[in-house]
Amino acid sequence: MARLRAADGVVSAVLFVLSVVAASIEPHKHQFLLRWPAVLVAAVGCAALVRRRDHPVGVLAATVVCGVAYELLGVRDSPLVVSPVLVAVYNVAARTDRRTGWTSAVVSASVLVSTAAVFTPQSWLAPDTVAMVAWTALPAAIGDGVRSRRAYVVAVEERAEHAEHTREQEARQRVAAERVRIARELHDIVAHHIALINAQAGVAVHLVDQRPEQILTALEDIRDTSRSALDELRVTVGLLRQSDDPVAPRDPMPGLAQVPALLASFERVGLAVSHTRCGETEPLEPAVDLAAYRIVQESLTNVRKHAGADHARLCLHYHRERLTITVEDDGSAGPHRPHRPRPGAGHGLIGMRERAATIGGRLHAGPRPEGGFTVTAELPLRPGRPGPARDRRDGHDDSCTAC
């Protein structure tokens, strides 16, 4: 602020000298005549410019009054004499809105021109009068351009700051979504395989007394299950590596093609799953294939962990634009098993719903009226395409007696 005040002081001093010199020159007599009243008027007008940043309209009024005083003193009109007025007009146009700037310029020119026409014998259309109007309009136009330029720069800076803030917010959201996705993937892998290992270990403990000769088979099942868990963890963790990392694994993520092996792993721990397919089977998008597999895996894991049942049903129904997955059981929590989670509760159910919603599908889970539990997921065959409503409109048969 001190530097701006100093700069304004220098500008005012320069304009004071120019105004005094221009007011003291007699062009027709070719002589220099210093008139002290004009010096005093110039001093007042130029001194007012020091406060032009704080009071632009008030400073303009003061300089216009000084311009009128020049006319009354008989000082000839010239851009240098009324230079404080021109600077004040520019200041108002640059620091206020367009309407105020041009209104101030028109009023200032009208006052000066009217005063010159009344107190001097020249005509309204005299060259000096027209020149005064032009000289007053010029700083108004320059000030309006400067104001528009400043507003444009401020708008660009605000947009840049907003874009930077938006990019940071989007980056945080992507990081949070990725963390949720990784947590969901790890939960499905660990929960499924740990549940199987726990069941297989229980079988091994039971066989110690009943059938010792089958302990080796149970231990081999535990080994195979833990190896499968490690393989899936390796693939999942490998996705976190950089794409140019030469040691990053390239194994495919699991899909519905691995469902038979998944059902066999459950069968080894005492859960028999009847598997049926309806409709014309077709290859799925990788995202849909992985989501379908994880939903089947988590649903059957919940049956094994929470339901007192040794049988479950899995149905995969392929419609024209969607895949319906249904997992049912007839069991209920036994005296030595934890109660079945409420519909919508638990990380497993939340994760399945998130998987379905991510690809544009939906999932419903809840108890069956006749007993047991059911999970139904509707997934679009192509991510992001709405499937359920369109299938019913196109006349395709949604019924499946096998399911």
Automatic annotation (TrEMBL):
GO molecular function: kinase activity
Keyword Nucleus carried by entry: no
Lineage of source species: Bacteria, Bacillati, Actinomycetota, Actinomycetes, Kitasatosporales
Residue span, Histidine kinase/HSP90-like ATPase domain: 287-383
Positions of region (Disordered): 328-348, 364-403
Keyword terms: ATP-binding, Kinase, Nucleotide-binding, Phosphoprotein, Transferase, Two-component regulatory system
Spans traversing the lipid bilayer: none
Protein name from the UniProt record: histidine kinase
Regions of compositional bias (Basic and acidic residues) in chain numbering: 388-403
Record organism: Streptomyces gelaticus
InterPro entries documented for this protein: DUF7134, HATPase_C_sf, HATPase_dom, Sensor_HK_TwoCompSys, Sig_transdc_His_kin_sub3_dim/P
Origin superkingdom: Bacteria
Protein EC: 2.7.13.3
Top-level EC class as recorded in UniProt: transferase
Catalyses which reaction(s): ATP + protein L-histidine = ADP + protein N-phospho-L-histidine
